Amino acid sequence: MPPFIVNRSIPMITLPSLNDLPSKWNETRERLETDFSDDLEALLHGRLTEHEAKQFEQDFIDRIGCAPEEYVRIRRAIRLLEARYPDSSNELTAAAIATPLGEMLAVFGGKGLCLLEFVGQKHMEQEITAVQKALRGRFVFREDERTQLLRQELDLYFKGRLKTFATPLEQVGTEFQKQAWDALLAIPYGETRSYKEQAQRLGNPKAVRAVAAANGQNKVSILIPCHRVIGSDGKLTGYAGGLNRKQSLLALERGEVQTTLF
């Protein structure tokens, strides 16, 4: 592979602007923009009545396009991505990728893609920290052959024209988690499995809870398809990117309608 193409002007993940919030929320907005270490519930309910907090959250969703907690998670993720790793010069290639279901953060280690998640989703901060700790490096946003391949493949996937990815993977997790993720990789495009069926594939039918927990620790959305695992009753469960995204991904793979959420 040729040397990395480094471009320091390549943007990080997108932080939504709060300029469109009504002026009556200026004080709360300022706190969100400047002190995002505060507990969101404490911030809202410590300064606003219950009715005001609900109105603020609704105005936030209507005007900004995401929930306040998602905005806070993005701010915290950006802080982690900007931090330097203390005792290593290793660099992890990062890229922000636009998709019909929202922006995604991709991170590559030396061997392959180790993180691909929707920006602002639950547990994103923990996953960024886990990847950085395991691979001992700092994040650098840039384009190279791997990020370009992933962009192309995701574009084709969301157009319904790609079923198998060639982007190399670098799984960051325990041995059991990696076994569970390998079982996910074995689920064919357009099909689903229950957690029990996934546990059976691993040779331990009683390990349903452990399998579900391992799926929850999957750091590579779509390519390692945890969205293809559903409850034994057929209901959609347990997807950090949101059940609406899970439903859209399954509908896409079944050849149904659109993939656009936003």
What is the topological layout?
Blueprint: H1 26-34, H2 40-47, H3 50-64, H4 68-82, E1 91-97, E2 104-108, E3 113-118, H5 124-135, E4 138-141, H6 145-158, H7 175-185, E5 193-194, H8 195-201, H9 208-216, E6 229-230, H10 243-253
Helix pairs in contact: 4-5, 8-9
TL;DR?
The chain has 262 residues and is α/β, with parallel strands linked by helices. The protein is built from 10 helices and 6 strands, in the order H-H-H-H-E-E-E-H-E-H-H-E-H-H-E-H.
Question: What's the N-to-C terminus distance?
Answer: 36 Å
How would a textbook summarize the main sheet?
4 strands, mixed
Record the strand order, biggest sheet.
Answer: 3-2-1-4
Average pLDDT: 88
Query: How many beta strands in the DSSP annotation?
Result: 6
What overall form do the CA principal axes indicate? globular
Order of helical and strand elements: HHHHEEEHEHHEHHEH
Number of helices: 10
Query: Uncertain regions: pLDDT < 50 for 5+ in a row?
Result: 1-8
Structural class: alpha/beta
Radius of gyration: 19 Å
Our estimate of the beta-strand percent is 5-15%
Helix content: 40-55%
